[in-house]
Specification:
Length: 344
């Protein structure tokens, strides 16, 4: 409900602003008066080039403490300064301390737009207290945190249900499929968990994510802990959610593939995970000193689900991926951060 109310307020404000910023002669007096009254809660004022205030909304009087009979000049309350009037063809956005009648100052974000009112050049000024903007941002941040928290919990619940289901299956091959699916779910869960804990709700430190993901994959394959050593060398590279999810799933597939096929018959070895930036591109390298790949092995043509996912996710990331199995197995991934795509 809070999100719906917030969206409605922003939509209504945007519509009123669009109506109020039309050239005055093009709006009939009745429509103009209705729009002005509907926007009364906003701190609006008409100001001339010399700083004289022609009119102000009730929201403006409430903000400054003045009454209509005491309407001061715009310069007296610091609404109009040396950078005003702005270029008559451009909108100005700025921030300043507004002097109230009580003697106190309030920090406001100003939007100043040139308007032709009854043939006179003047400016429509919207003043929004910074505290109000911060409260709005805090509400949005709390909502995003709650979303990430619930997504993480739901993914964790699905993983637990799969675990319960797997415990009733006697077929080892089917149980392995359940375990592999759980690993993929955990890779996504970890991203939402890290976003929930982060101060930045839209990006994660992917270096820290890879560190935790690698250790989780090793723990999920506990039989490999004594004979295989994870070696993690990662830089702090921040990625948005659009990039982090497919990249995390792709790395998970490469790690699991290396653990399951790179060290047969109890062979000892190391699995390396590296992350850095090379020539303005992000580079991830997953390599091991294990068995390697057959000379005629073509990972692009293999029909296994894991490598199918690698190909699909690499395409989604618009990444260049190379896999070399001549001496151990080395998978190198190069890509740029994806831009967020508007979905609605």
């Amino acid at each position: 409900m809070k999100r719906l109310r917030l969206t409605t307020q922003l939509t209504n404000r945007r519509r009123r602003s669009q109506l109020l910023t039309l050239p005055y002669p093009e709006v009939c007096p009745e429509v103009w008066q209705a729009a002005w009254q509907a926007s009364a809660a906003l701190a609006l004022a008409w100001v001339t080039a010399d700083g004289q205030m022609l009119e102000a909304s009730s929201g403006f009087y409430a903000l400054t403490g003045y009454s209509p009979a005491e309407l001061p000049s715009a310069t007296a309350i610091n609404l109009w300064t040396a950078d005003c009037p702005p270029d008559s063809a451009q909108l100005l956005k700025t921030q300043r301390q507004l002097h109230c009648k009580s003697g106190q100052c309030v920090t406001v974000d100003l939007i100043i737009e040139p308007i032709c009112r009854q043939g006179q050049q003047c400016w429509l000024v919207l003043a929004t207290p910074v505290e109000a903007n911060q409260t709005e941002l805090q509400e949005k941040a709390a909502l995003l945190k709650e979303i990430h928290h619930r997504v993480r919990n739901n993914l964790h619940l699905i993983s637990n249900l799969l675990d319960l289901q797997a415990s009733s299956v006697n077929d080892e091959q089917v149980s392995a499929l359940f375990a592999t699916t759980q690993n993929r779910i955990q890779a996504m869960t970890l991203i939402h968990e890290q976003l929930y804990q982060s101060a930045d709700l839209g990006r994660i430190d992917f270096g820290e994510y890879l560190r935790r993901l690698t250790l989780n994959v090793f723990l999920a394959n506990s039989n490999d802990l004594e004979r295989l050593t994870p070696v993690i060398r990662v830089e702090s590279v921040w990625l948005n959610l659009e990039t982090a999810v497919p990249c995390g799933l792709l790395v998970n597939e490469l790690l699991v593939n290396s653990l399951q096929h790179g060290f047969p018959n109890g062979q000892l070895g190391e699995l390396h995970v590296e992350l850095g930036q090379v020539e303005q591109q992000i580079q991830i390298k997953i390599w091991d000193n294990g068995l390697g790949l057959a000379s005629d092995f073509d990972w692009q043509q293999v029909d296994s689900l894991g490598l199918k996912l690698v190909r699909i996710l690499a395409k989604q990331l618009k990444a260049k991926i190379q896999i070399d199995g001549s001496s151990g197995t080395v998978a190198t991934l190069n890509f740029a951060e994806l831009k967020y795509q508007t979905r609605f």
